[in-house]
Amino acid sequence: MFVDRAKIFIKSGKGGDGAVSFRREPFVPEGGPDGGDGGKGGDVIFQADENLRTLMDFRYKRKYEAENGQNGMKKKRYGKNGQDLVIKVPVGTVVIDEESGLIMQDLTENGQSFVAAKGGKGGKGNVKYTTSTRQAPNFAEAGGFAKERNVILEMKLIADVGLVGFPNVGKSTLLSMSTSAKPKIANYHFTTIAPNLGVVKIFDTSFVMADIAGIIEGAHEGAGLGHKFLKHIERTKVLIHVVDVSGSEGRDPIEDFDKINRELEQYSPALIKKPQIVAANKIDIISEDDPKFLDFKKYVESKGYKVFPMSAPINIGVKEVLAEAAECLQKLLLEPQEENEYQLFDFEAEDNDPDYRTVTVEFNGRDYVLRGKQLNKIFNSTNFTDAGSMRYLYKYIEKSGAIDKMKEMGIEDGDIIKIQDFEFEYFDEDYI
């Protein structure tokens, strides 16, 4: 089954917690702190693999988690780093952050990879909190939080030439006559329900050609399987527009030609700018002297396109169409290529979140609720049986401005302050 879109959940590894430990040696009655740091959590990495052709595997497994970092240990031993999770996807896969809708990476080359979710940093052991005034810290740092997100995987075929046109105009037949591809061919609409690829060898060159499933009117708005089909045209360099010039099904070739181009332009203006070769198929049903063909040729050429009479089943005009495609590709190689412009997901901004150390205060009618990413990390590191550790937490909350904010909001002695699922009574000029 050809699957070209999937949504999955990814989660990096949590950082290991730092250890609280003290030396216990014979004849050393009061050994110093020796708690080691926790290990870093594993990253989630996407990597393009040319051996994959579909996103089908992601239909059956939708949750991917990297390994957590190991907690620190006594004797200043560091915890082991969590193992990275490498998720392999087909070349041509776009990875999109679902929440923002921004592209995280477009994986267009075999082996290309990127980190989609960084693992949490390992927490510091209590040996790192020793100071001249704090000789025996009885607390350590909790490991950094894991990152988690839903991502959309969208596969877009990487082909040099794309075949476009209404259903049943002969695109699959042209592909089968030009390559070793074996698409399903029959005289009914939507024979092709997924793109087919084939390699065209002509003269001393070759190129990859894709049969893009039939486009219908309204495809740019998602009619039929519009978006599913049209996105595969985006990476192609040259288009071969196949038109049933005979009008064998009562259709108007000129009208069909305009409708397809209109759908391409409305989906993306960049598509209509691609070099386009017009293959006037089924010329065996009429002749090149037929007024219907002559009118079509005159109209299309007035738009700046070349027209090639063709009958794919009996191999008339096929070589000429392919030769023109090869020539167009060669010209494009000599020209500077415009890169696709799109807004990328900003990993740097995520890593340097200005709100990371911000502590927000909210009164819910009963409690004063404190929230903050750095606050949660320090809170998780707090040893509530150790006065020094509690004082460290209080000082952080005080420096954040949260105490002053709660006073402005009217907090009084005995009121409840809530952090995560824990509740504390407030007393002025005292630590929580």
From TrEMBL:
Any one biological process term the GO annotation gives: ribosome biogenesis
SUPFAM superfamilies: Obg GTP-binding protein C-terminal domain (SSF102741), Obg GTP-binding protein N-terminal domain (SSF82051), P-loop containing nucleoside triphosphate hydrolases (SSF52540)
Keyword tags: Cytoplasm, GTP-binding, Hydrolase, Magnesium, Metal-binding, Nucleotide-binding
PROSITE patterns listed in its UniProt record: G_OBG, OBG, OCT
Entry's localization field: Cytoplasm
Binding site for Mg(2+): 172, 192
Residue ranges of domain Obg in the record: 1-158
Protein name: GTPase Obg
Source organism per UniProt: Lentihominibacter hominis
